[in-house]
User: Which sequence fits this backbone?
């Protein structure tokens, strides 16, 4: 896929365990510098490995976006369908997560990841995809989800506290079974 405005060749593919260092590096930035995630502590490599294996064992997508680099590939984004809630009644519901490396926004990488993730979502084990988006600084994510047919279904006011401020969360939802 051509990245918008730059002509760069973006590859979206299934993540491997070798990609987790790049994934962790991207997420570390958001934990340390933004309110996009409510994590205060950067997850360890072991935590990422457990998350990756849990998602893959559930037959759900965990993807990376890469660009060519001198030493091979450079991970510039990732997306996955994780657990929404742990109770069995929620087994067909997932929570999506999409992050793009700082400095690479606005190049179509988020759209490429979203398209790849939705294309790989198995309707046999996924019905609902929920996005939980921090409203402070989340305008781009809200717009991305809207472009792909997610509808805003609620807002939790002042639900999280990070960086000295109370932050709303926007809930968006996509029903894969109603999409044909």
Assistant:
């Amino acid at each position: 896929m051509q990245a918008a405005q730059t002509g760069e060749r973006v590859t979206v593919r299934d993540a491997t365990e070798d990609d987790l260092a790049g994934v962790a590096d991207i997420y570390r930035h958001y934990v340390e510098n933004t309110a996009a995630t409510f994590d205060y502590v950067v997850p360890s490599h072991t935590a990422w490995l457990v998350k990756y294996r849990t998602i893959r064992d559930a037959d759900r997508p965990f993807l990376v976006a890469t660009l060519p680099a001198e030493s091979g590939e450079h991970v510039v984004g990732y997306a996955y369908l994780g657990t929404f809630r742990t109770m069995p009644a929620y087994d067909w519901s997932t929570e999506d997560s999409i992050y793009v490396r700082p400095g690479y926004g606005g190049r179509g990488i988020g759209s490429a990841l979203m398209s790849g993730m939705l294309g790989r979502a198995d309707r046999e084990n996924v019905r609902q995809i929920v996005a939980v988006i921090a409203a402070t600084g989340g305008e781009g994510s809200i717009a991305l989800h809207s472009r792909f047919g997610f509808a805003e279904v609620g807002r939790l006011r002042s639900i999280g506290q990070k960086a000295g401020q109370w932050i709303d969360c926007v809930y968006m939802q996509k029903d894969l079974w109603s999409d044909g």
